[in-house]
Design brief:
The complex is a heterodimer of chains A (260) and B (104). Chain A is mainly alpha-helical and 260 residues long. Chain A has one domain. Helix content of chain A is 68%, strand content 4%. Chain A has a two-stranded antiparallel sheet. In chain A, β1 and β2 form a beta hairpin. Chain A is globular. Chain B has 104 residues and is an all-alpha fold. Chain B has one domain. Chain B has three helices and no strands. The longest helix of chain B is centred in the N-terminal third of the chain and has 33 residues. The chains are: A mainly alpha (260), B mainly alpha (104). Chains A and B meet through α2, α3, α7 and α8 of A and α1, α2 and α3 of B. Chain B: InterPro entries: DUF1634 (IPR012861). Chain B: It comes from Dyella psychrodurans. Chain B: This is DUF1634 domain-containing protein. Chain B: Keywords: Membrane, Transmembrane, Transmembrane helix.
């Protein structure tokens, strides 16, 4: 999960930073988290780089659409939609807790999509786990939505990407986490250049935030390998519920909860 | 089940891991040195801000460099479909930045 959704409220509510500058710092933080921890996931063979580049077409396209739509769609509507997506995702993840590593295989048994299949080593169970990619079109559609909301809300949208991969593509949770983390940097980069040129990324604020994010991301990446999938899923469900409550508050007008 | 050969996949993973770890490491050092220099007062402040800004620009450029590296690696491995997809992602990234600046 990216740090973006936590950075904006912390900077605006506690440090009193302007919201645009906070969003700029948040985007840098998202990229820092993604790049800082990606190496560890790649070495552990948890990241599916082929799947990531395919899904990045949808996330970057969504982010580009978000850049165009920013200012057109009202923010409370976005927060309400985000809250609904988070609640549905939390419910879906909770329902699939007992099926953490053994996904039922469906869909075509051959074809181009099979080139995205892979294996990952799960230290918690002490062996390699093979997995297949399912329902790629549904995954691409959800990734487009994640990219769109990412650009509109100024977040990495890892909270949307992981459930999308988990429920639509049927990826194991550790592969979802690692691949999502690998992708969020590119999604954020789609808007970071524009923020930097506009002057919304202030070095004195974004610098320390980026530094702290890299250190936190490195620690998180090392911990992920040793955590059991079901425990990780439960942590995500709790995080999703907390964020959903924040979004509901923001949608009904308690805007300061999100610092928007 | 068809899976990529381990050696080719591992090489790609290693290259990407090297790029991202070295890139984010260099970026962090630049930002950290800049922040330390800022503490030494106004005379060092402009240089310090320059170092922090360079670190941030490097960090922002890393994902784009990563996509470009993936495209080149796929090209050398004659996986033209994935190389084309990487080129498409690069094109969208550039277009998105230009759109963002224009909408500014």
């Amino acid at each position: 999960m990216s740090s973006g959704i936590f950075i904006v409220p912390i900077l605006t509510l506690i440090a009193g930073v302007d919201v645009r500058v906070a969003i700029g710092a948040s985007i840098v933080s998202v990229i820092a988290c993604s790049c800082g921890s990606a190496a560890s996931f790649l070495k552990e063979r948890l990241t599916n780089v082929r799947l990531a580049i395919v899904l990045e077409t949808a996330t970057t396209l969504g982010a580009a659409s978000g850049v165009l739509l920013s200012g057109v769609v009202s923010v409370p509507v976005l927060y309400a939609v985000f809250a609904m997506v988070l609640l549905v995702s939390a419910w879906q993840m909770l329902m699939r807790r007992g099926n953490a590593t053994a996904h039922p295989h469906g869909g075509p048994t051959d074809g181009w999509v099979r080139r995205l299949d892979s294996v990952y080593p799960d230290r918690a169970i002490g062996s390699d786990v093979a997995y297949r990619i399912e329902r790629l079109p549904a995954g691409l559609a959800l990734m487009y939505g994640a990219g769109l909301l990412s650009a509109l809300l100024g977040i990495g949208s890892g909270v949307l990407k992981i459930p999308a991969m988990d429920t639509a593509l049927r990826l194991p949770i550790k592969v979802s986490s690692a691949t999502s983390n690998f992708m969020i940097g590119v999604t954020a980069a789609a808007s970071a250049g524009a923020y930097f040129i506009r002057g919304a990324i202030v070095p004195a604020i974004a610098g320390p935030v980026a530094l702290g994010s890299v250190v936190g991301a490195l620690l998180g990446a090392r911990l992920l390998v040793f955590i059991a999938p079901n425990k990780l899923r439960l942590v995500f469900v709790v995080a999703l519920l907390v964020l959903a409550i924040q979004m509901v508050f923001a949608a009904v007008g308690v805007r300061r909860v999100l610092g928007a | 089940m068809t899976t990529p050969t381990c050696s080719a996949a591992d090489r790609l993973n290693s290259r990407l891991a090297w790029l991202l770890s070295r890139g984010s490491g260099a970026s962090c050092w630049l930002i950290a040195i800049g922040m330390v220099l800022r503490m030494f007062g106004a005379s060092a402040r402009s240089g310090a801000d320059g170092l922090v800004s360079t670190g941030i620009v490097l960090l922002i450029a890393l994902p784009t460099l990563r996509v470009a590296t993936m495209g080149v690696c796929f090209l050398f491995r004659r996986e033209f479909d994935f190389a084309l997809i990487a080129a498409l992602v690069l094109a969208i990234l550039v277009a998105s930045t230009l759109l963002g600046v224009a909408a500014g």
